[in-house]
Specification:
Outer membrane lipoprotein wza fold like, single chain, 3-stranded antiparallel beta sheet, wza like fold, 3 domains, about 30% helix, about 270 residues, alpha+beta, 5-stranded mixed beta sheet
Length: about 270
């Protein structure tokens, strides 16, 4: 009888430990850049990845355009809406939209005096140069400042703060985007991060491994406007626990051992 009680207690302890360890996510699956080679002391490893702001303008893109005229800045500002910009800072998506120029369905933008200018499939720098040439025909000593005002990212799946984010800079990489969404959860599958990107032929789905160091050299390391980042969950999450209920399991096991002990005592 004593051996039976000892074996039963051992069985309950083994069951508890098995459940606890099975519910833990291996650290290996939570690491970034885990495949990087070890650098020698005072040395570094270089991963070549040239930044290239190669977004091509498409219908629906919004451009913030500022006219600067060294001879009469007030008049130039009135053409670009700069006066209202100075008095009411760009504090909301609505104000950014209202003070931007939108490419129409055919990829044209309409500027004061210069009229319609086709910008479809041009980079920001190419569009700026083309508009500058047209503006120079009507205004002297005027310089244009051109920025893309609708750099949106959607970050979904296993991140702490999923949602759509506005990016107020010319470029952003994958790690910056994940940090913006509050980092990945403990159940994120870093080896299969999907990027949905719009192309001329439709939508492209790219799968990247953020756990591998060579992501730093990937052509998809830097994101583009309107990219969607989806981070899949690990299979362990399908068990139903986002956080393991240690106190509940311990209470159940304790109750079971107590009842078993009482049952065995009553049989004596």
């Amino acid at each position: 009888m004593r051996n039976m009680k000892k074996n039963m207690r051992f069985g309950w302890a083994a069951l508890l430990l098995s459940v606890m360890f099975a519910s833990c996510v291996p650290q290996e699956k939570m690491l970034y850049l885990k495949n990087a080679q070890m650098a020698a002391e005072n040395q570094s490893i270089n991963y070549v990845n040239e930044r290239s702001a190669d977004h091509k303008l498409q219908p629906g893109d919004n451009l913030y355009i500022r006219f600067i005229n060294t001879m009469d800045e007030r008049n130039a500002a009135s053409l670009s809406g700069e006066s209202s910009y100075r008095s009411t800072q760009l504090s909301s998506d609505a104000s950014i939209y209202l003070q931007s120029y939108t490419l129409d369905d055919e990829g044209f933008i309409e500027l004061p005096l210069a009229g319609k200018i086709e910008l479809k499939n041009l980079s920001i720098d190419q569009a700026k140069d083309k508009m500058q040439q047209e503006v120079n025909k009507f205004m002297t000593q005027t310089t244009l400042i051109v920025k893309l005002s609708n750099f949106n990212l959607s970050i979904l799946g296993e991140v702490n703060k999923p949602g759509m984010y506005k990016v107020y800079q010319s470029q952003i990489n994958l790690f910056e985007a994940v940090a913006m969404a509050g980092n990945m959860t403990n159940f994120a599958k870093t080896s299969e991060v999907k990027i949905v990107r719009q192309t001329d032929n439709g939508s492209e789905i790219i799968t990247v491994d953020m756990g591998a160091a060579d992501i730093l050299s990937s052509p998809y390391y830097y994101l583009k406007p309107n990219d969607i980042i989806y981070i899949e969950p690990l299979k362990i999450k399908s068990w139903g626990f986002t956080a393991f209920p240690y106190s509940t399991v311990i209470s159940i096991v304790t109750l079971g051992v107590t009842m078993l002990t009482l049952y065995l005592n009553n049989k004596k």
